[in-house]
């Protein structure tokens, strides 16, 4: 250890090995190269930090090549500087390739930011979903039909990107579909993977529309393979169907002036087609359903019917008579007329709930 320290001390005491120092400073290219290298080594992290770092280093080493070729006249300076500049340029090319590989088309990028990014879905997972639809954006012209009632098979799942789609049944308007909503989520949920079915509604484009579509078999294969994507689609489809249900509930309120609870299966018996020809017994049942599920708002005419007094027992002869009970009579003003408001069975296909298509 003492021998090494003595050797270093001797070298320092001997002074510089240079016989003579140059009186002239190096040219501007040499100083520019060092400034660029200094700026390059001040670069940060991340993708754009790497672009900054390798960009300035490439320019600095290229200036060193020029300085070694024209001023220093040293082959080793030229070769090493050229090699370092080449490595930095290759790293820049690799970064550009990675960025181009991660870039999505504009429509899919907007879809990711609007629907998947708020759920913190990883970009790589989103790419698998996009790859399943083959990265194709389909279009619908104005008044072009996406599905025809009773004819179009349920063989895909589509998501509207732009425009507006009208949903109708037997020529009766049901609701609209807006951008970033599924076009056929009720039909998708109504069938098992091994089952086949057709649309019960007609979907018509009211404006020029664009949408993406996943083939049924390919999407089922992806959902079976990836549990995370399966849970993601379950949440998105459930939210989409609930939004359609709430829209239809507001439509019922606007038409009838009464707010129905769409979760009640008995609502179908009140408004369904079987109530039109059911006779007095069904009307009595409908009245009882109306009494139990809705309450008349202020200003709604109601008829008071006195309940027949029951025979008092000897022990309760002095008790007051039971109060009369207000009860809604079946209106004749068309509030619950079936012909004015046709609807689809809420039980949908094969006894399953086809929610979202009940007006």
Automatic annotation (TrEMBL):
According to the UniProt record, where is the region Disordered?
276-332
Question: In this protein, which residues make up the domain named POPDC1-3?
Answer: 26-251
User: Is Membrane given among the entry's keywords?
Assistant: yes
UniProt record, GO biological process: heart development; regulation of membrane potential; skeletal muscle tissue development; striated muscle cell differentiation
Per the database entry, which stretches of residues form a coiled coil?
A: none
Report the principal subcellular site.
Answer: membrane
The family database entries (InterPro entries) matched by this protein are listed as: cNMP-bd_dom_sf, POPDC1-3, POPDC1-3_dom
GO CC entries: sarcolemma
Q: Does the keyword Membrane apply?
A: yes
Give one Pfam family: POPDC1-3
Q: How does it sit in the membrane?
A: Multi-pass membrane protein
- MF (Gene Ontology): cAMP binding
Q: Where does this one sit in the cell? A: Membrane
The membrane-spanning stretches of this chain are: none
**Bias (Polar residues):** 292-308
Keyword set, alphabetical order = Membrane, Transmembrane, Transmembrane helix
Report the family membership.
Answer: Belongs to the popeye family.
Q: State the name under which the record lists this protein.
A: Popeye domain containing 2
The opening ranks of the lineage are:
Eukaryota, Metazoa, Chordata, Craniata, Vertebrata
């Amino acid at each position: 250890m003492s021998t090494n320290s003595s050797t270093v001390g001797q070298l320092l005491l001997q002074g510089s090995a240079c016989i003579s120092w140059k009186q002239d400073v190096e040219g501007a290219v040499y100083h520019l190269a060092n400034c660029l290298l200094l700026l390059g080594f001040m670069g940060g992290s991340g993708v754009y930090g790497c672009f900054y770092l390798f960009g300035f280093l490439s320019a600095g080493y290229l200036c060193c090549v020029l300085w070694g070729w024209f001023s220093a006249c040293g082959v080793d300076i030229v070769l090493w500087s050229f090699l370092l500049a080449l490595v930095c340029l290759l790293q820049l090319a690799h970064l550009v390739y990675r960025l181009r590989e991660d870039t999505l088309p504009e429509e899919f990028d907007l879809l990711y930011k609007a629907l998947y990014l708020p759920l913190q879905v990883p970009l790589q997972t989103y790419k698998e979903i996009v790859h399943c639809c083959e990265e194709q954006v389909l279009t619908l012209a104005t008044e072009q039909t996406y599905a025809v009632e009773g004819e179009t098979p349920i063989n895909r799942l589509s998501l509207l990107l732009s425009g507006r789609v009208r949903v109708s049944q037997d020529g009766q308007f049901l609701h609209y579909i807006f951008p970033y909503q599924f076009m056929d989520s009720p039909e998708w949920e109504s069938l098992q993977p091994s089952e086949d079915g057709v649309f019960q509604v007609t979907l018509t484009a009211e404006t020029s529309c664009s949408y993406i579509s996943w083939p049924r078999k390919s999407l089922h294969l992806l959902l079976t393979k990836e549990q995370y994507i399966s849970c993601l689609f379950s949440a998105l489809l459930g939210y989409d169907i609930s939004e359609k249900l709430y829209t239809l509930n507001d439509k019922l309120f606007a038409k009838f002036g009464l707010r129905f609870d769409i979760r009640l299966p008995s609502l179908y018996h009140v408004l369904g087609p079987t109530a039109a020809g059911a006779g007095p017994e069904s009307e009595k049942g409908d009245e009882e359903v109306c009494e139990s599920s809705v309450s008349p708002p202020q200003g709604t005419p109601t008829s008071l019917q006195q309940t027949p007094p029951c025979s008092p027992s000897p022990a309760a002869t002095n008790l007051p008579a039971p109060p009369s009970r207000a009860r809604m009579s079946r209106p004749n003003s068309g509030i619950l007329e079936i012909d004015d408001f046709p609807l689809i069975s809420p039980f949908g296909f094969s006894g399953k709930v086809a929610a979202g298509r009940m007006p």
